[in-house]
Amino acid sequence: MPQVEETHPYYDGDYGLQNDWISIGESTCSAKMYSWPIGSKNGKGTSLMCVEELSRLCLERTKTARDCIDVMGYHAENFGFWSTQSVSD
């Protein structure tokens, strides 16, 4: 994962919640998308990122909502995204 020169402190409660500039509200909904994290017991794991980690990266690295979306999208596309709701192994 590419590193950045500067990071920011943030408040966390399972999901990243807030830094000095932006806040995130989480709303879980159902979807027909399933993936598994790398190292899962079922052996199908190909994804590194979950919403918890994406929210933390966003708050650690950005100061605007637009930049947050860009960071989360980039990392989900490049490192794979798995839903915590789809893990049943």
Describe this structure in words.
The protein has a domain at 15-23 and 49-89. Strand 1 and strand 2 (15-18) form a beta hairpin. The longest helix is centred in the C-terminal third of the chain and has 15 residues, at 65-79. It is built from two helices and two strands. The two termini are 26 Å apart. Helix 1 (51-61) crosses helix 2 (65-79). The protein is 29% helix and 8% strand. It is α+β, with helices and mostly antiparallel strands and 89 residues long. 22% of the residues are buried. The protein has helices spanning 51-61, 65-79, and strands at 11-13, 15-18. It has a two-stranded antiparallel ribbon.
Considering DSSP H and I runs of 4 or more, what fraction of the residues is helical?
Answer: 25-40%
Question: Could you describe the largest sheet, including whether it forms a barrel?
Answer: 2 strands, antiparallel
Number of helices: 2
Give the end-to-end Cα distance, rounded to a whole number of Å.
26 Å
Query: Into which percentage range does the β-strand content fall?
Result: 5-15%
How are the strands ordered across the major sheet? 1-2
| Global Rg | 14 Å
Task: Note the overall shape.
Answer: globular
Determine the structural class based on helices, strands and strand pairing. Answer: alpha+beta
Order of helices and strands: EEHH
Low-confidence stretches: none
Quote the average pLDDT: 77
Number of strands: 2
